[in-house]
Write a structure and sequence with these properties.
Layout (H helix, E strand, L loop, with lengths): L1 H16 L12 H15 L6 H8 L1 H14 L1 H4 L9 H6 L4 H23 L19 H7 L1
Pfam families: GST_C_6
Protein name: MTX1 protein
Organism: Anhinga rufa (African darter)
Length: 147
């Protein structure tokens, strides 16, 4: 029953589209986006049961509709052209300063965080006298109490 309803829906969509480029003329509407979002995966995906996919492929105007939208709005995904496969060495040359830029952005972020910590008082630097290890300097109030 579900397959029969889906086949009927595809047939009705095909009849409504007819020979037009989009459902409402020469420019896409929100209905075109919705229909395309359902048809494209059905047309392009590998499915375990291909009955519905075969029916869609038999409706040539819907196939052309999907192919047209794919090539118009997603040229690297749906069109016949594919992005050229670059060897790994050439891909590095696309941005030769990538590592430098990443390092500098991390460094700037670290300096900004430390600057904020110092300026807000979260971290402060206090100079103390050089005394033996493990001994804490005695504050002025503690000296008066000992006397």
């Amino acid at each position: 029953q579900l397959y029969r309803d889906a086949r009927e829906c595809l047939t009705l969509l095909s009849q409504r589209l007819g020979s037009q480029k989009f459902f409402f003329g020469d420019s896409p509407a929100s209905l075109d986006a919705f229909v395309f979002s359902r048809l494209a995966p059905l047309l392009k995906a590998k499915l375990p049961n291909g009955k519905l996919q075969q029916h869609l492929k038999s409706l040539q105007n819907l196939c052309n509709y999907c192919t047209s939208i794919l090539s118009l709005y997603f040229p690297w995904d749906g069109g016949e052209m594919h992005p050229p496969a670059l060897p790994p060495l050439l891909r590095v040359e696309e941005d030769p300063h990538k590592w430098r830029n990443q390092f500098l952005s991390v460094l700037v972020g670290l300096v900004a965080m430390l600057g904020y910590a110092f300026l807000s008082g979260i971290v402060s630097i206090q100079r103390g006298g050089a005394g033996p290890a493990g001994r804490q300097p005695i504050a002025l109030e503690e000296e008066e109490e000992e006397e």
